[in-house]
Amino acid sequence: MVVVGADVHKHTHTFVAVDEVGRKLGEKTVKALTSGHAEAVMWARERFGAQVVWAIEDCRHLSARLERDLLTAGQQVVRVPPKLMAQARASARTRGKLKRPGFPGGSGYWIPIKGWSVRYAS
């Protein structure tokens, strides 16, 4: 199974795909618009097939449209609670450097595994 995590911002979303053991498989940045979300879905389908789970931080002011577009496209979406993200971000930080999820040194914490409490979006 491939998990695609999202780093959502007001104008862009960056997606990083990882496998079951957390190896980075690919990365894609798109505009935070429905057309960009469709581009991300096409990228994931072409590169990784149909068995993709999208892990989205549950900050709906930035992720609501993305979540809605993914569900409309028939994708499986899980919401990762912000509290989990905050703890993971704090542990992944190095003084003076910004560590982004899915990038060297800051990946893996947003994958819904090891008994984390995630909610499937519907």
UniProtKB/TrEMBL annotation:
UniProt GO MF annotations: DNA binding; transposase activity
InterPro entries: Transp_IS110-like_N (IPR002525), Transpos_IS110 (IPR047650)
One Pfam family matching this protein: DEDD_Tnp_IS110
Domain of life: Bacteria
Signal peptide: none
Domain (Transposase IS110-like N-terminal) ranges: 4-97
UniProt record, GO biological process: DNA transposition
Name of the protein in question: Transposase
